[in-house]
Specification:
By secondary structure, the protein is of the alpha+beta class. 38% of the residues lie in helices and 11% in strands.
Length: 479
Amino acid sequence: MRGSSLSRRQWLATTGALGLSALSGCGRSRPVRDGQGRVIVEYWHQPMVTEVPELGDEVKEVGDFERFLAREFMAENPDIVVRTQCLNWEDLPRKVPISVLGGRPPDVLMDFVGRTSGFWYQGVLESLDEMVEDIVEDFQPRLFEASRLVGADGSRRLHAVPLCGWVQVLALNRAAWDAQGLGHLLPTREDPRWESWDQFEAALAAVSNSEVTPLGMQCASEQGDYRVLQYFWAFGAEVYHDRDYSRVALNSAEGVAALEWLVDAKRKGWIQSNVATAGYGFYDMFWRGRTVAIPSGVAIRQAYENALRDGKVTADFNGDGQLDMEIFYTLPPTRHGVEMTLPVSTNGLVVFKQSDPDRREAAMRFVRYLSSTETVGRYARASQMLPGRRSVGQIFSDQPDVMQILDMAAECPVADMGATSPAYYDIRKRLPPYLQAAFLELKSPAEALAGFEREAEGVLGGQLVTAGQGQPPAGESFR
């Protein structure tokens, strides 16, 4: 079923009022300079970095690293003062759009490009092509292309400077199997690929019991929905087909089969009973050994080390009083004959349009500093994410299994989540209620996906377009 598409011209017309109201400063404007005459730059960012070992006590919690970078930048740029603000995952899709509507957005924002793309379509972001024109070849191609969007003139522009990114693989707690003499059911460390879907199901069934529901996921909100979608991709289903963003493609024979498998997996006890309401609690379940397999980026190992430090890891599968935890990465399994596709995500730096030339120049100067090879490398190493610039070099040389799985993942086509399409968030936020209805068996999988398709068709046809359309989803911290 194909709905009428929302053209770029219609989209810009719809959101133009938002952009104009923001730029006209319908709220009280912020001062350009502080009491010492320094130009003020506000930097808002994700809670991406918790600690940086080489910086010791200077970085002990989220926000500390950005404050450290701001101090370092200001030491070299005494005419600028940078004020940082760390937004949690719940605030990111709410506070920033509200600030835009109020005419007081930050000057610089670091976030997922699926979220920042909405501000580009509203016309409130600067094009950053000139900033990187001499270093384009140094950016990782997948991350760079994800940051380029179509502008009002029809040409593609760089709306965000790629800082770092992640690719989703499957993270297992291998100890759940090894501690029970079941390690032979898993892929080998030498070749971490599943031989078949049957092998995957057999491994899940072997460790499933009243205490362990192997698969960790949630659909209480759109946050981290790519974990659920990984199983749709495993069946050959697509959210969008061939970059056609005029319709969603999830309501297909493959999509229905995937959701039927997920619902049946919950019945079997392979998915936690509270999947419809769990939120991010399934990570705590992973540390406790209640779930043992989560689609994730490779940064989950760092999250494990933090959880271990904080005393959150209590998994013990054989009752010997010893912790049973080994992060083991595999490529996600697929059904027979299905080509594997993996989601790739990019975090980038954007600059909101400025009416004051001094503030614009100061914001651009700060972004140049943040996107330098040295700073990109610091961010990537601290967050265990893929660096946006090639010149950073290899940051996972001390983790050969990570290098191996990333090399394998690089050969896989990218799963298209539509993250940079104009209606991305307004469509994405409508899927979870239908997944919830299917898991709770209030709707059949076929009914659930048909209902989602109808809502998406209404959005794309302009019937349900809302002012929040440019607010993509909250990100997640274990990329």
